[in-house]
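Batch manifest line 401
LIGAND: (2S)-2-hydroxybutanedioic acid
JOB: complex structure
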Amino acid sequence: TWSAVPAGPPDPILGITEAFKADKDPRKINLGVGAYRDENGKPYVLNAVKKAEVKMAIAKLDKEYLPITGLANFTQNAAKLAYGSDSVPLNQNAIAVTQSISGTGALRIGGAFLARHYPGHRIIYLPTPTWGNHIPLFKDSGLEVRSYRYFDKKTVGLDFEGLKEDLKNAPEGAVVLLHACAHNPTGVDPTPAQWKELSDVLAEKKLFPFFDMAYQGFASGSTTRDAFAVRHFVSQGHNVALCQSFAKNMGLYGERVGAFSLTTSSEEEKKRVESQLKIIVRPMYSNPPLHGAHIANTILSDPELYQEWESEVKGMADRIISMRERLCELLTNDLQTPGSWGHIKSQIGMFSFTGLQTEQCKALAGKAHIYMTMDGRISMAGLNSSNIEYFAQSVDAAVRG
Ligand code: LMR
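JOB STATUS: finished
ARTIFACT:
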């Protein structure tokens, strides 16, 4: 029956974990998937999460089905976290929101909703480069995928002029995917002034902003600062789509906790939109999982846990920042590796887009047992004081060929 089914390639990001696990060398390092590791290279369960789980065990919660759009308190708290408690559409009860299977699930619900109900073009513009999964995800949702310039290899920074030109040339009514903070894979974000300009360009061209916010709190250590772009666009009168993930900022990777929301013009419009979100979700997975949403909601609704969580997010962000500084120093000063490495320090979020070429990435895997995506992206969280020197020396060797 399946004789004509061709074997597919391994996933460019998750496939790396498989290769890493199969490697038996004790020096091996996995810098592929964006998952936080502590100073000992171990996965990190946040104290706020552990305490929330204790509270939940004491409360003896049941295991009933959630409604189709998920745990209502959780989705309200998630929206408050993203849009801010003073958000106009939030206070007018005009944000349609549904729980989702983390960020990917949110993107997929959003893609399906736009394909079905968006009155403009079914075209979505993605930055080049973008998170690899965005492309098949939006294609499979029924949208036409196009690209806009984002990263400038020459300056190793944002190609802001190219970006604006591409968006100005996009057909009126197209959708534009924006990484709200900590752009994946480049770690290069627009400045607040550039976000303001972008908001004007999108308004002028009647383009629809679709935010992917997978790293709120992780970029700068502040959930408020990282929400700047989303809140600014909303304050300028844009209706936005927003995907949230609690994988990174709460370390709830495997719990699959997220939310998808759309700002609307009124409570009545929100109700109609939400009814259609239900119609999309029900035949897809019926209703979302309970446990992770309860954890996130317990943290978001308990002031003490909330505070502890915020300081832990900051702790994770700060450790990543210190690894950036150390790596830049090792390559620039200690090893004097050919090339310039300042971008490792200026990029933000989980990743650094190192500029290493595919051949060098392959050499690092083959010779040094160091795994990263073939575009030269490294997950900074995989580095710690025990492996960073070995990593820098291996990069030095790969660069010198
Ligand atoms: C990543 O880019 O490594 C993360 O977003 C994890 C994933 O699912 O790809």
